[in-house]
């Protein structure tokens, strides 16, 4: 028996056979900037400040946009003064056509500054496919969300998904959120509304640099959690915060998931240089200890593939043939040959050979 091959639609055949995607997209976007034959695009329709240093952008997305799961991240591609940048953000689904993109403005950040100061209503932004493992569990169980700074953004996504699916009626959810000052707390009004809507949800915000300062995350906060042994704990924030959360919760909670949103300086006294051999390009370079391998290679005009620069998306992963490395997020050292290496969050401790 012969299988019948499904024929392509006339427009699909035409676009693939006669015109390239770039040309098709150019003319489609003359009619509507969100139209595209293959691109995942969003148009800014609203801008507001979620806190003193966090901007919230509401975007209308096209049919190619992949929402992914709550808590995941999306690559975001931005053109600033003719240079294309890729950044990674956690998005919150508003409805089937809109997402919320929250950006913490960084003084030296080219993309965050452009989004905050220059991006206008109607601006078009391109997205990549979602990724990340910090998603909701399949089973109903108590959840504890622990966040600091911009680490609150994936937590908002998780909470909105829980609220929309009515899961909060079946399981207790606690949010513990650390910021420096009252004006730095984002989405407080939304959390208050969720607490009104769902008796199973509670939250507490800690202000570590106000006049009557709260303490940073420590073991005294364990007493605030109702049923830690049966809870899944999510932690997101700077790497130092996440490392502390892992120390507190990884052994005592039912399960523990974490992501570091930004790199903190790991206490170390690494000084000096080591040699790194790149097997694919047959190059030997001298790079400093205590700095990410990715940043060190970039300083010598080597341009490895990368994405989030936070050890989440795995775009920079390569094979380590030999040598010792240190994880800049948690300080863990690894000397095993043949391991997969995330060069954006690891530094070289000894001479190193990597498949790059």
TrEMBL record:
Source lineage: Bacteria, Pseudomonadati, Pseudomonadota, Gammaproteobacteria, Moraxellales
Record organism: Acinetobacter celticus
Annotated 2Fe-2S ferredoxin-type domain residues: 274-356
Pfam families to which the protein is assigned, alphabetical: FAD_binding_6, Fer2, NAD_binding_1
Entry-linked InterPro entries: 2Fe-2S_ferredoxin-like_sf, 2Fe-2S_ferredoxin-type, Beta-grasp_dom_sf, Cbr1-like_FAD-bd_dom, FAD-bd_FR_type, FNR_nucleotide-bd, MRET, OxRdtase_FAD/NAD-bd
PANTHER family: NADH OXIDOREDUCTASE HCR, OXIDOREDUCTASE-RELATED
GO molecular function, one term: oxidoreductase activity
Classification via PROSITE patterns: 2FE2S_FER_2 (PS51085), FAD_FR (PS51384)
Protein name in the entry: Oxidoreductase
Occurrences of domain FAD-binding FR-type (ranges): 37-137
């Amino acid at each position: 028996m012969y299988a019948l091959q499904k024929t392509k639609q006339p427009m699909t055949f035409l676009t693939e056979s006669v015109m390239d995607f770039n040309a098709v997209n150019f003319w489609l976007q003359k009619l509507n900037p969100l139209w595209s034959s293959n691109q995942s695009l969003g148009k800014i329709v609203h801008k507001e400040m979620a806190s003193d240093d966090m901007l919230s952008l509401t975007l209308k997305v096209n049919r190619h946009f992949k929402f992914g799961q709550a808590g995941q991240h999306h690559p975001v591609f931005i053109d600033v003064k003719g240079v294309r940048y890729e950044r990674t953000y956690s998005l919150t689904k508003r409805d089937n056509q809109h997402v919320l993109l929250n950006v913490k403005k960084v003084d030296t950040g080219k993309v965050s500054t452009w989004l905050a100061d220059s991006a206008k209503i109607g601006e078009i932004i391109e997205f990549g496919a979602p990724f990340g493992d910090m998603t909701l569990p399949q089973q109903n169980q108590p959840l504890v969300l622990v966040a600091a700074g911009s680490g609150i953004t994936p937590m908002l996504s998780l909470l909105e998904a829980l609220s929309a699916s009515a899961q909060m009626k079946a399981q207790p959810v606690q949010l513990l959120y650390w910021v420096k000052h009252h004006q730095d707390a984002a989405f407080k009004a939304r959390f208050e509304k969720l607490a009104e809507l769902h008796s199973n949800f509670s939250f507490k915000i800690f202000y570590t640099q106000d006049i009557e300062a709260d303490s940073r995350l420590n073991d005294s906060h364990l007493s605030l959690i109702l049923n830690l042994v049966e809870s899944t704990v999510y932690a997101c924030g700077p790497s130092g915060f996440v490392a502390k959360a892992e120390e507190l919760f990884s052994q005592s909670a039912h399960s523990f998931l974490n992501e570091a949103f930004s790199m903190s300086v790991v206490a170390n006294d690494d000084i000096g240089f080591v040699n790194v051999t790149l097997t694919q390009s047959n190059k030997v370079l001298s790079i400093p200890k205590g700095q990410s391998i990715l940043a060190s290679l970039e300083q010598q005009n080597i341009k490895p593939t990368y994405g989030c620069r936070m050890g989440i998306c795995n775009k920079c992963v390569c094979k380590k043939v030999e040598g010792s490395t240190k994880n800049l997020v948690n300080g863990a050292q690894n000397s095993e040959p043949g391991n997969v290496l995330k060069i954006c969050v690891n530094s070289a401790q000894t001479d190193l050979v990597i498949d790059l």
